[in-house]
Structure to design on (902 residues):
């Protein structure tokens, strides 16, 4: 396997109202990161415990997997964000009525073990982990969020957190967006990797004018991990996002859901939905400015910049999908509505036959037609146009002679394979989905994941 | 690739009210088969044109793909069975009002080219093919059904039928269920193969008592082809079934739909639904007896025997799925209803992560739990039990210590991998789905299918 280069936007790239900057989460003032090796993974060289700590209580929000077999840390973090009732003892429940609702001081994430299908003992370990971090920070355990990723159905060791949490605390970088903060954020991004071959992080800045006429510049940064069991369902994979702005609760929740629906929820690697999907967002307020609410002039620019950031992270996930050699972007237009466009695009993006054809550099557009046809989206086959990498391959449902040599050349030279399908219904429905090809490496990676 | 042995039931095997016999379609009296090499495939050694002809007009029924991009032969055959309005010229439409509605004399099937996404020219070629066969038989073109399988979006040559149909006519075997008839049926089953490594056919006999007290014995035989782009959706793959009984139209349609829903519609290789799925059934009436209608005492035994036959064919398809090394049978019980059980079983059977784990001989049941959780079926995770190859691996949503060495031994020795999941809802919903594992060979086969 040749080493993969990142597809992340380079610092300085401008997209919409946002400019990419270096440093990932480390670009955001008011929080500190660490990533250490704590023994969760067999390979002692690999980092496997990430910690993100804010200098002061940060506004927090989260979106979680819709999988019924959701893991213990998902149940715990949902509760700590007060999105659900208490999954464990009564004593804890009382604390939930306390101060600081929806604020967090820290997020602790381990790789190597998902703490899923582990029952009450698993919940107990997630709860102890939050307490361990809270003790170190002198805060309430409710202000600590927990996430795990890795193998399902294997008990997670509490001892590893007892030794690992102090290690991670000692390794925390500065909260000043300095190069040292960037380095610590990279450590954290590396610590949450599972079968990912690349750490995935990004940061953007945007400038906008407040209601009082003052111009402000905010940073939003984030890290995510892929790279298998990826088809988020109204939630998403493992990720931590942060901003140095300050928002009210409603604004942050709406912004996060809007941006995720357009980005992370439009990635599919293998159509499988994780038991552990969790994305957290923290607002530190470390950069002065007015509180952003859903009605203020800063809200739209904030959502736009957050969407740019998350689109870059979504593309990074698809590009680094298990075994992937290509990023595949599927764009469906001309559907009756956006929902039908989404079903059609997802059907293409999840078709093993489309994905193996791309892996084989085969412009077999008939399989794209097949995937459209089975999607349930309404259309007449004689109205459908398909383009592959910009080449017209199908017009009005019929083959178009195209230059197979040129197609092969594009397959060999392009990192990103673009599929465009226009359903020609006269409707304006459209959707974009990111995925990757299906290669031998996917089989190799997943044929012996546990062993 | 080592040569695969068939998983078909051996002649003499008794299942329910049915006894397996040799000969496939060739076991059915009153019809003749042929399979010849007519140049549709590049390899001149491979048969690629199959013809099935009845001695007299046979009662006919068909079920077809639900893919919106359905192929020309599907449109034509649907029309010839009067399930749709005319897809082509007005002149033909008039004939549709004529005699012999729902009767057929012949089915012509080619492999190597699906005649899909080929527009009006493709429809014209399918129509000409029916006429060619009709001329040879001296019957109406409406009494000829057409099916194609192979690559999508490539024009099909009319000339190959002009030379191929007379060749196939000349090669037709006898209609007397003799060894020569068996050999001709095997030729036909070979001619419809695409990426199949084995021809797939079966035949059963059953004995039952008519309303007049007379005991009758009927034969039902069939051939099908897999082996990729297989997830039938209220229709199925390419297949021809026949019986020497005589039924009325309603009884045959109900019997076919009932049996298919329990068998062929419960196979999935790769979750992709073909543009060309067609299953035809012919009743020759060559063995004397009363007409079977949906109310007579013969109907239930007929449906039962047909279901036994189709279950065997369904298992053959899953076993010979593209690249498959294992037949995987997924059984879900304890769901709220059968529909939820079906969704849960299909979610497991289509999960690339479950299928690669089986290919890797890895008892990674956490992925089975994940697939249940994303299926949308309602259950509480603490009520779920999972067994893998008869080993209890999960009880009440929690891991059970099991003998990993025994699991490995079973993975290595068993052709069929059984997954049982009980959702524990207190409901009686259950479903069974057949699939196969996902191996490197699937990628190899589909990475360069056209080239």
């Amino acid at each position: 396997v040749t080493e993969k280069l990142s597809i992340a936007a380079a610092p300085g790239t401008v997209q919409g109202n946002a400019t990419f900057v270096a440093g990932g989460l480390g670009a955001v003032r008011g929080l500190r990161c660490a990533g250490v090796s704590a023994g969760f993974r067999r390979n002692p060289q690999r980092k496997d415990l990430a910690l993100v700590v804010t200098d002061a209580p940060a506004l927090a929000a989260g979106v979680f997997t819709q999988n019924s077999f959701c893991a213990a840390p998902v149940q715990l973090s949902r509760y700590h964000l007060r999105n659900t009732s208490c999954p464990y003892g009564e004593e804890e429940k009382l604390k939930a009525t306390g101060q600081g609702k929806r604020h967090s001081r820290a997020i602790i994430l381990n790789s190597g073990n998902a703490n899923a299908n582990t029952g009450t003992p698993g919940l107990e370990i997630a709860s102890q982990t939050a307490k361990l971090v809270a003790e170190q920070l002198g805060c309430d355990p409710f202000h600590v969020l927990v996430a795990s990723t890795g193998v399902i159905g294997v008990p997670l060791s509490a001892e590893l957190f007892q030794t690992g949490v102090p290690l991670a605390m000692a390794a925390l970088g500065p909260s000043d967006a300095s190069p040292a903060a960037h380095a610590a954020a990279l450590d954290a991004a590396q610590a949450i990797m599972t079968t990912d071959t690349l750490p995935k992080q990004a940061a953007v800045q945007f400038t906008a004018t407040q209601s009082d006429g003052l111009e402000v510049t905010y940073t939003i940064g984030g890290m995510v991990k892929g790279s298998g069991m990826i088809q988020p369902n109204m939630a998403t994979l493992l990720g931590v996002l942060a901003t140095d702005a300050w928002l009210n609760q409603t604004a942050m929740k709406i912004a996060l859901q809007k941006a995720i629906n357009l980005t992370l929820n439009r990635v599919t690697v293998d159509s499988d939905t994780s038991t552990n999907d969790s994305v957290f967002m923290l607002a530190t307020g470390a950069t002065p400015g007015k509180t952003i609410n859903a009605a203020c002039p800063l809200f739209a620019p904030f959502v736009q910049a957050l969407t740019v950031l998350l689109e870059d992270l979504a593309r990074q996930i698809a590009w680094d999908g298990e075994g992937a050699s290509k990023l595949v972007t599927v764009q469906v237009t001309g559907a009756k509505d956006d929902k039908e466009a989404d079903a059609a695009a997802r059907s293409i993006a999840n078709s093993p036959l489309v994905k193996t054809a791309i892996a084989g550099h085969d412009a077999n557009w008939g399989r794209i037609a097949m995937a459209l046809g089975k999607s349930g989206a309404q259309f007449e086959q004689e109205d459908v146009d398909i383009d592959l990498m910009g080449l017209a391959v199908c017009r009005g449902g019929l083959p178009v002679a195209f230059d197979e040599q040129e197609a092969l050349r594009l397959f060999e030279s392009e990192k990103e394979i673009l599929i465009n399908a226009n359903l020609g219904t006269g409707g304006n429905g459209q959707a974009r989905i990111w995925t990757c090809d299906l290669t031998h490496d996917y089989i190799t990676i997943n044929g012996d994941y546990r062993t």
